[in-house]
Amino acid sequence: MKRIESIDHLEELLSEPTPGLIETLARIEGDILILGVAGKMGPTLARMAARASRAGGTKRRIIGIARFSASNSERELQRHEIETVRCDLLDEGALARLPDVPNVIFMAGRKFGSSGDEPLTWAMNTHLPAIIAQRFAHSRIVAFSTGNIYGLVPFTGAGSRETDVPQPVGEYAMS
Fold first, then answer.
1. How far is CA 170 from CA 95, 104, 114, 151, 173, in A?
2. For position 50, what pLDDT does the model report?
């Protein structure tokens, strides 16, 4: 097993594309737009998509969209050849100005900090997916979701399944 020496080393390992991803992205035409790229998983996914595209010999733009409220996430993405666009996705005028692309990865959502600002949580997690689907109706859209709607299970078990009855706890899970 490799020893992880630093956060940069961890990011390098996490963003390493598999042969299957390289092959898949080599077959898919067009640029990729990642909505909500500045979140928890977005930067790593964007780097992986860029690395897989280069490894497969595919010229494409990887475009990360976010408000970029965190300190250096935008600069870090740009350092890895990912284009960035600052955008409040709930602003339909700003959304209309985003580039038309054939591939959209939807990662935007409000997870943490939902308590105390429940209306924004509901807008981000219910209204926003609808306007994104309308705006990018001619694109292939991959949408990230959550398993948070399922009830708690023992850590010794197999985990939740999609056939489990939803038991959401809190605004994020309910929205």
1. 29, 28, 9, 11, 6
2. 96
